[in-house]
UniProtKB/TrEMBL annotation:
Lactate/malate dehydrogenase N-terminal domain ranges (all copies): 26-172
Protein's organism: Gracilariopsis lemaneiformis (Red alga)
Subunit details: Homodimer.
Family as reported in the entry's similarity comment: Belongs to the LDH/MDH superfamily. MDH type 1 family.
Domain Lactate/malate dehydrogenase C-terminal: 174-339
Official protein name in the record: Malate dehydrogenase
Positions of the catalytic residues: 204
UniProt lineage: Eukaryota, Rhodophyta, Florideophyceae, Rhodymeniophycidae, Gracilariales
Length: 341
């Protein structure tokens, strides 16, 4: 499993240890004091193998970072934690960062769509990406802030304006959709979630989320199950928003998903090969349809995106879902591009 795979070694006596290599990467978390930022930072600081590739966790927010950093710094791993509060402190937070993770912005309340967050979060992502462009233009940028289908194009346009855009270094984090899909499909099929992999393509909201349930290894589902599960995966975020009843959206599962993506990227940047994750990245697959960003499985490497995977075979039902996904994606992406211009 990803959490234990990183740099683990089995000693001759059978005990499990972690490589003693010292990490040299700096990760900046922007929005570090928030519902996602805090547990995400905890998972990065406390991961048993993290100090083998991570040396510095830089915690940035507009409020409360001293407390988060003081608290995390009492965890006995070698990852250094620093805190930076307010926009004047952004350059110091980003200085020398190899990876920047952005969970800054407002979450949904019941009755809202992710696109309803656009007015607030678009300018937050734009401002933070402009900071990245001027301070750490070579960094890998992981956008969590919603609506991801629009905030990723905003980040791309902002980096392009500054002349530092490289499609290999910008990701919209869609990992939570795959994590959820594993849970829901495993539950329906009577399997262990750890052993179920579901490809989820497209974007990160409603109908733009396209779970490929026709090719889950070792799982056969009825038509009725497929339709029910597809809807549950597409609207899984709403379940959490409803359950939290006004107190926000998914934070803990998102922190888990964000940490998984970040740690896998760090392993790839260090030179480990064959690491794949899904992410919403610039992709040529549907450019002919006016959709410049799309999530498929990608291979990660020393420069970030090494190669973008195919969509693969889809059955008739999934082809219908794809058509709907592309329609919505085109609108969401255009909204982001127009805003940034
Ligand atoms: N990509 C995905 O799968 C998911 C994305 N999200 C999104 O992540 C975002 C954050 O969610 P939560 O952590 O629950 O929200 P939150 O409100 O708990 O935390 C957000 C943090 O961002 C900070 N912030 C606001 N403006 C900022 C700025 N200009 N610079 C730096 N920090 C700033 C706030 O002070 C706060 O600490 C939301 O937009 C949410 O919709 C949530 C779950 C899953
Ligand atoms: O639903 C939301 O607003 C948060 C989110 O993106 C998710 O949980 O997938």
């Amino acid at each position: 499993m990803w959490f234990c795979r990183a740099l683990r070694r089995v000693a001759p006596n059978g005990s499990r240890t972690y490589a003693t290599q010292i990490g040299d990467k700096k990760v900046a978390v922007l929005g570090a004091a928030g519902g996602i930022g805090q547990p995400l930072s905890l998972l990065l600081k406390s991961h048993p193998g993290a100090s083998s590739f991570l040396s510095h966790l830089s915690l940035y927010d507009v409020v409360n970072t001293p407390g988060v950093a003081a608290d995390l710094s009492h965890i006995n791993t070698s990852v250094k934690c620093t805190h930076h509060t307010g926009s004047d402190a952004l350059p110091a937070a980003l200085d020398g960062a190899d990876v920047v993770v952005i969970p800054a912005g407002v979450p949904r309340k019941p009755g809202m769509s992710r696109q309803d967050l656009f007015n607030t979060n678009a300018s937050i992502v734009q401002q933070l990406t402009a900071g990245i462009a001027s301070t750490c233009p070579q960094a890998q940028v992981l956008v969590i802030s919603n609506p991801v289908n629009s905030t990723v194009p905003i980040a791309a346009e902002t980096l392009k304006k500054a002349g530092v855009y490289d499609r290999r270094r910008l990701f919209g984090v869609t990992t939570l959709d795959l994590v959820r899909a594993s849970c829901f499909v495993a539950e329906a099929a009577g399997k262990r979630p750890e052993n179920v992999h579901v490809d989820v393509l497209g974007g990160h909201s409603g109908k733009t989320i396209l779970p490929v349930l026709s090719r889950v290894p070792g799982v056969q589902l009825t038509k009725e199950q497929v339709e029910k599960l597809t809807n549950r995966i597409q609207f899984g975020g709403d379940e959490v928003v409803k359950a939290k009843d006004g107190l926000g959206s998914a934070t803990l599962s998102m922190a888990y998903a964000g940490a998984r993506f970040t740690l896998n990227l760090l392993r790839a940047l260090k030179g480990e090969s064959g690491i794949t994750e899904a992410a919403f990245v610039e992709s040529d697959i549907f450019k002919k349809d006016g959709v410049d960003y799309f999530s498929t499985q990608i291979t990660l490497g020393r420069q970030g995106v090494e190669s973008v995977g195919e969509v693969g075979p889809l059955d008739e039902y999934e082809q219908g879902l794809l058509k709907d996904a592309l329609e919505d994606l085109k609108i969401n992406i255009k909204a982001g591009v127009d805003f940034a211009k």
